[in-house]
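Incident log, entry 3
Record: Glycosyltransferase family 4 protein (760 residues)
Problem: checksum mismatch between cached and fresh output.
Input:
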Amino acid sequence: MTALHRIAFIGNSLPRRCGIATFTTDLQQALAASAPDLVTSIVAMNDSDGYDYPSSVGFQIRDDRIEDYARAADFLNEGRFDVVSLQHEFGIFGGEAGAHVAGLLSRLTMPVVTTLHTVLSKPSPAQRGVMERIVDASSRVVVMAEKGRDMLRTIYRLPADKIEVIAHGIPDFAFVEPDEAKARLGFAGRSVILTFGLLSPNKGIEVMIDAMPSILRRRPDAIYVVLGATHPHLVREQGEAYRIGLQKRVHELGIEDHVVFLDQFVDRETLLGFIAMCDVYVTPYLNEAQMTSGTLAYSFGLGKAVVSTPYWHAQELLADGRGVLVPFSDVVATGDEIAGLLTDTIRRQAMRRRAYASSRSMTWEQTAKRYLATFESARRTRLLNVIAGTAQIRPPLQPSAPPELRTDHLHCMCDDTGLFQHAVHSVPDRAHGYCVDDNARALLLSCLLGSAGEQHLSEPLTARFASFVQHAWNPQAQRFRNFMSFDRRWLEEVGSEDSHGRTLWALGECARSDISPTRRRWAAALFAEALPTVDSFRSPRAWGFALLGLDAYCTVVAAPSSTVRLRSLLADRLLALLSTVETPDWVWFEEVLSYDNARLPQALIATGRSMQVPAYVGAGLRSLRWLVEVQSTPAGQFRPVGSESFGDRLSPPKAFDQQPLEATATISACLAAWRADGDTQWRAEAMRAFAWFMGENDLSTPLVDLETGACRDGLHRDRPNENRGGESVVSYLLSLAEIRQLSRMTGDRPKLAPLRVLHA
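Fresh output:
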């Protein structure tokens, strides 16, 4: 395997003012310096401000623009980067709990190594869901403290071999006394206490200010330097009210000559000068859940005596006498410890030497070597998985019961004629009228609910769907019409072959499982009348739909020999197509992928089981296995064949536009495969496809409204389709009914991502 040549970073970048920006830039520069031939590029996250980025930033993402995340994935894939290093912090990415970045990762074709700057011990459901999607998409996860490793293993159940602990990098700075830097910066003759970082209420500056009077009683020459601009987000929300409040506090204590606020965001060289001149560095943070602190790492690496509250990073870094820990918000202890260090030179110098000596493994040069080794390991593992054919195998995520089945939106999409085709958002669109395709699907749903232990659809509603199918039948042409205008005029005398086949499928299921005996007899009779026409069809999907109808019909009707022959003929046609087109890399029935793809292998599997023809089952399983593989992202999420792919000859499917119909077909086919060969991986694939509805998709966006049962019409490249038409709602409800039925059959709770509600 060749050496790493191209590495990309996703995160904030200087000159944006934040710790993540500093870290991303420092890591990028350290890696670029480690190997002259290494090409590095940063994908920079932007908030509402614009930044004058250097040439190291190759692409910018506006954090609230989901289309930018898609374009960033294209930039990285087209740039053929060997590995992507993601710097993750919840606050820098758009979407609920920063979910947009998970959509970006799902599109990448190279391994991802994620550095977690925060690991939450009590995440919200949304935060946990996003975190799990990110770590699942990552080949390796880096944390900067052992506490992070422990939390990932116990809270998030990550395997140990997926986690790396790499300390926060530090500049390789000489161990120097502070006098020269003090003189240069105007603090000669003073005992300097320093805090550096963006000013915000969680930093505990108030505690340090309140401790100053007690420090001054023992060390009258002490001065506390607060270096750093106010956090930009705080400035946008409150202006400089927080800084002014701190200054007022200093004035009230009468210590104006001993506290200096330097409202600056300084470059690294200036920062190192300020750290070099201090005698004690203090981080009085108020929250234990601080996994990393760049300012702590830098001051520790320069050999400073550090006094800190016991947040997680400080507990590890300052253990064994390498620093001093004081309780959170404890003014007395903070003052006592700092004053003690300022008045005890021998103890302070010993602490400095211990800190400096133990930090040599943390220099950016050493940190870069650790990251390079981790990147190499991630790439090697990914390559081995690809060779072994396991690159797409991912464990299902967080266990969760399937949602309740709600039909409110389905009812809204119906009138006394039938199911409307389209909607504008959630409002039925009468302009496009009705079609037999959607009403046949709705009849399938009614039949499934009648046999799945769910609340049945109302008798009038089911009768309406059946009536539409009956009215669509054109006995003169021996074909079903398809499209009807809102004023109940048929727009054609003969519909498509596919719509005819799909209607036969619905009639076959109705003949088998409708709760009404008279409707079962009606369906069987109309099925028998409409079936012979299929013999002349040329559409493989029409054959497949008809076979699915025959699978149901033949379980309840003693089919005549002509029907049995036609059933074998249709299955043989699909088998012949597969044998003609199939290659090692293209295991499919046609040279193109189109819509409702999984129905073809499903039809062969179902027919093969019923007729006891192993060749049919084998061909169905083989083609479905290939389809599942091409419908998976590198991170293992379900990605249906996009409609942009339709007609592309022998080409990998395009990602967009994605439609619910494909997920529904895949779920049904995978469950048919599971019933055929008992391999539980098929159930896992069905769950993965259903999770697409719930938000496990390229945009990390749920398509369904759990309260109404509405379903968006799909995913565009940059946004979800906000319309919620008839095909989409029936597709979702069919899938949900199957998943709920599976849950009852197996007694297992299906493993799905945490559910999030999309409100219509």
